């Protein structure tokens, strides 16, 4: 068979492990030919690709980013390009395309699949917010990076008796905030699923200082917002792809907390460092398993499906189900984290 693979949307540690796995399983075990489209859907629409043989994927398992490049594409642009994509698949003699991506990519994959293109999706996102899979690769790495940062920030916060408001990624969900906050023993965790009240937050941090503690660490997901009417807040806007461009919740919270507590408060924005660099062993294994199963799905003709982790097993779910809703942090998890916000 001839298989095309592409990586689309924000990058994520483990993408190269999937690409490598698709080539190993496809080329070595099945005698397939594999090509990689450059820069996501753009490569498919512009027929920009490279052959992927064993040499091409040698040494990439532990490498961050994606050797194929990635980009975002506007959904309308892709919709207009369905015919072109179909033609390119035919010209290249492709039997299937495996797009590796997050929410936006999987929605696009579903649209192309509904239009009759042979697609098997692979989910990725550091945010871990795709509901049809228990975990996405990249999440474990991002949590590790954020946890290490929080551990380091504790020592400087304590030296200066400061409140540090640490902003982690998570546009719609607070999985990275919750897990890194729990792992590092943060004093408050603020997630988008539960709008915060700055008065309650200030009280919580104030009590800590009153009890003789010399610093506080607040972890906040970038998409967190205050409860309406509790604080003046600039939410930011959207970019041309419809993605949030946040005005900076940590920065705004630091100003408020400093004023209310009379303690120095500093925002720390971890940003893209959470997405870069080498994947953890867990993410490499999950990504490799997803790649392996995606090739099997292609050989089984299971198009319109996505690989998924359920418990310890990799199975398939319809793409339609994968993009139905986001996986948010359930309230029970706040309780476990002793999150009072
Ligand atoms: O991959 C998802 C994500 O990490 C979000 O948490 C974040 O809002 C977004 O990517 C930012 O990506 P970019 O700056 O590449 O648009």
From TrEMBL:
It is an enzyme of class 2 (transferase). InterPro entries: ATP_PFK, ATP_PFK_prok-type, Phosphofructokinase_CS, Phosphofructokinase_dom, Phosphofructokinase_III, PKF_sf. It is found in: Cytoplasm. GO terms for cellular component: 6-phosphofructokinase complex. Its cofactor is Mg(2+). The record marks 104 as: Important for substrate specificity. Keywords: ATP-binding, Cytoplasm, Glycolysis, Kinase, Magnesium, Metal-binding, Nucleotide-binding, Transferase. Mg(2+) binds at residue 103. This is ATP-dependent 6-phosphofructokinase. The gene is pfkA.
């Amino acid at each position: 068979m001839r298989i095309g693979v592409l990586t689309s949307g924000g990058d994520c540690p483990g993408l190269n492990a999937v690409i490598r796995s698709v080539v190993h399983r496809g080329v070595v075990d099945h005698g397939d030919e594999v090509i990689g489209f450059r820069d996501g859907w753009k490569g498919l629409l512009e027929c920009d690709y490279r052959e992927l043989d064993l040499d091409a994927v040698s040494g990439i398992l532990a490498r961050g980013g994606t050797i194929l490049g990635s980009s975002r594409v506007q959904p309308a642009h892709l919709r207009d390009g369905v015919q072109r994509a179909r033609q390119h698949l035919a010209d290249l003699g492709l039997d299937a395309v495996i797009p590796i991506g997050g929410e936006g990519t999987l929605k696009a994959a579903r649209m192309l699949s509904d239009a009759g293109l042979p697609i098997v999706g692979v989910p990725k996102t550091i945010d871990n917010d795709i509901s049809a899979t228990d975990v996405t690769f990249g999440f474990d790495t991002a949590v590790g990076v954020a946890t290490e940062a929080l551990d380091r920030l504790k020592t400087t916060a304590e030296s200066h008796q400061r409140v540090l408001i640490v902003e982690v990624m998570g546009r719609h969900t607070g999985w990275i905030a919750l897990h890194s906050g729990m792992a590092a023993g943060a004093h408050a965790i603020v997630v988008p699923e539960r709008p915060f009240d700055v008065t309650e937050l200030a009280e919580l941090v104030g009590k800590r200082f009153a009890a003789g503690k010399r610093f506080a660490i607040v972890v906040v997901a970038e998409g967190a917002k205050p409860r309406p009417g509790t604080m003046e807040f600039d939410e930011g806007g959207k970019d041309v792809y419809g993605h949030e461009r946040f005005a900076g919740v940590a920065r705004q919270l630091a100003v408020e907390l400093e004023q209310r507590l009379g303690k120095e408060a500093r925002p720390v924005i971890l940003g893209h460092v959470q997405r870069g660099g080498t994947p953890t062993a867990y993410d490499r294994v999950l990504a490799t398993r997803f790649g392996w199963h995606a090739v099997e799905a292609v050989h089984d003709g299971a198009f319109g499906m996505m690989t998924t982790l359920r418990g310890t097993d990799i199975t398939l779910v319809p793409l339609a189900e994968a993009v139905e809703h986001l996986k948010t942090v359930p309230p029970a998890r706040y309780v476990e984290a002793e999150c009072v916000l």
